[in-house]
Amino acid sequence: MKILYINHFPLIGSGSGVYTSTIAKSFAKKGNSSIIIYPDNNDKTNEEENITYYPVLFKSHKLPFDFPCFTTHPLSTFAFTSMTDEEKKLYEDVFRDKIEEVIIKEKPDIIHGNHIWTLSGIGAELAKKYHIPLVLTCHGTCILGILEEEKLKHNWGTKWAHIAADYSNRIITISNDNKQNVERIFPNNKDKTILIKNGINTDVFKYDKAIDKEQVLKDFNIPGNYDKIVTFAGKLTYIKGVDTLLDAATIYEDNNTLTIIAGDGEAKEDLIDLAKKNNLKNVFFIGNRSQEELNKLFNIATCSVVPSRKDAFGLVAAEAMASGAPVIVTNHGGLKDLVNDEVGFLFEIGDHNTLAKDILKILNKEVIFDKNKISQYAISNFSQDKMVEEVEKIYQEAIKNRLN
Questions:
Q1: 320-355: buried (b, 16+ CB within 10 Å) or exposed (e) per residue?
Q2: 226 Rama sector, left if φ>0, alpha if ψ -120 to 50, beta otherwise
Q3: Whose CA is closest to 7, among 48, 46, 36?
Q4: Which candidate, 72, 115, 225, 393, has a CA 20 to 30 Å from the CA of 171?
Q5: What pTM was estimated for this model as a whole?
Q6: Please, which residues have CB within 8 angstroms of residue 126's CB and are 6 or more apart in sequence?
Q7: Topology annotation, domain 2-199+384-403
Q8: 193-195 and 228-233 strand pairing
Q9: Pick from 173, 146, 144: nearest CA to 160
């Protein structure tokens, strides 16, 4: 089977990028051919068996601007809603040419569009032209894009989103909340939606009690040693709620407690300033890190926090749990479906006082979690293998329907 993946963002720095890369590699390992079209600022890709990369370069002569985003990306803060009509046409034309070129060259059996938005709509038109089935995954932020366009009385991405949804064979949603939003916005395609939760790469994210905390801190250039470690990993944007964690740190921080923030984004300098304003001494910003490094970070964490204001699924929480960390997440979106009292706590968005209390319960061992059990819970409920099996059924069903 040949699968053409189309993503609106680079393969690093966003949840949909990680999803696209992960699922493409999983199908490639099973002997299928994975083909990926995506925006990027450079064309450096690793050669991998059964995977072909087709980056579309921004900040180039064809696309002399940054790739657009729904919110922000560590590599770009340019918003879809800020695009001029000329930029939109360039964007459409370049991707249309690339997608058609790849379809003719690679002859995919199926197209998988990530985000119900412009590129998936263009992909749908071309899929229809070449009689190829289309599967979509809604990652959540495309819903924010549609709502933002509605507020601004725009209809560019929304128009393409409906073209994509109408042609698609199936629409994969990643949480109950995500599914409800898709069915509300695309009521005529309600019967196409299916819930398949994101999967953890268990080859990378796993609990390993042999990981040495002192060495990991040294590798992250963090001086000293600490008994208690609170972690966050993700984009440094307002929507991810890191400011709530930094406000909570004014309550839980002491000389033996470290807070590590992994990631990058437009809010980084503001968050560094907030840490200084809050007079926090043991907060370290370590930038973007590989999945292997994040696994080590989560393994040494006393707890990991996901304080998002909006999150369709919250894969990073599942990854932290797979690595043995108890998690504290907001009672919102897909996050509330991930966590029970055996693996962590839920708190309300922006409530730094409750967040601090929950963190202290773990730091002070008022509540003790079993790292092995947390890891087993995450792997049994959110494994990548399980997700891939379900997606494969969707592909086979879509291809069979096309042939019939």
A1: bbbbbbbbbbbebbbbbbbbeeebbbbbeeebbebb
A2: beta
A3: 36
A4: 72
A5: 0.84
A6: 96, 99, 100, 103, 132
A7: Rossmann fold (3.40.50)
A8: unpaired
A9: 146
CA angle 9-10-16, nearest 5°? 60
Residue where the block lists tokens 């070129």 = 101
C-alpha 188/C-alpha 164 separation (Å) is 12
Q: What is the pLDDT along the chain (404 residues), one digit of tens a residue?
A: 999 999 999 998 888 998 999 899 999 999 999 999 999 988 777 778 999 999 999 999 899 999 999 988 888 989 999 999 999 999 999 999 999 999 999 999 999 999 999 999 999 999 999 999 999 999 999 999 999 999 999 999 999 999 999 999 999 999 888 999 999 999 999 999 999 988 888 889 999 999 999 999 999 999 988 999 999 999 898 989 999 999 999 999 999 999 999 998 889 999 999 999 999 999 999 999 998 999 999 999 999 999 999 876 778 999 999 999 999 999 987 788 889 999 999 999 999 999 999 999 999 999 999 999 999 999 988 888 889 999 999 999 999 987 65
CA distance 243 to 272: 10
Token reading at 234: 């993700």
Q: How is the chain split into domains, by residue range?
A: 2-199+384-403, 213-382
CATH dotted code for 213-382? 3.40.50.2000
Are the folds of 2-199+384-403 and 213-382 the same? Answer: yes
